[in-house]
Amino acid sequence: MTATNALRTHWPEYLIEGWALGTFMVAAGLVATLLGAPASPVHRALPDPMWRQAAGGIAMGLTAIALIHSGWGKRSGAHMNPAVTLTFLRLGKVQAWDALFFVMAQVVGGLSGVLQHSRQNS
What is the distance of C-alpha 58 from the center of its chain? Predict the structure, then answer.
């Protein structure tokens, strides 16, 4: 498959991957802010760092589950991580051009999510 064919055929899935990782990163920023900022009511409600870490892990796990099981996540495969995409490439589950475009979309989506969250908190 050529790059043009891959783009023409799978561009919606590439965008979904970028959206999924971007959404995950926004959620991570929100959870970290709510649990880590001393002025946050959630931080004050959970004074023990172990409980805050457990709550953060649960929140991010639920976020991943929601994204993976969403309609869009099911459509794209919800790799949401370049390491997973590269593993799928190595296992022969995705083609090389698809892997490249998935990783590019994931990087852009992840950066966009982080920048969006940081811009909202500045």
Answer: 15
Rounded to the nearest angstrom, the gap between the alpha carbon of residue 93 and the centroid of all alpha carbons in its chain is 20
Alpha carbons within 13 A on the beta-carbon side of 60: 17
pLDDT digits (tens, 9 = 90+) for 48-104: 999 999 999 999 999 999 999 999 999 988 888 899 999 999 999 999 999 999 999
Specify the DSSP element, H or E, that contains 29.
helix 3-36
Q: Which residue has the tokens 């296992």?
A: 91
The token duo for 44 is 């004050």
CA distance 32 to 37: 8
58 is written with which tokens? 């649960």
Answer positive or negative: Cα dihedral of 56, 62, 68, 70.
Answer: negative
* Residue 16 tokens, joined: 């979904």
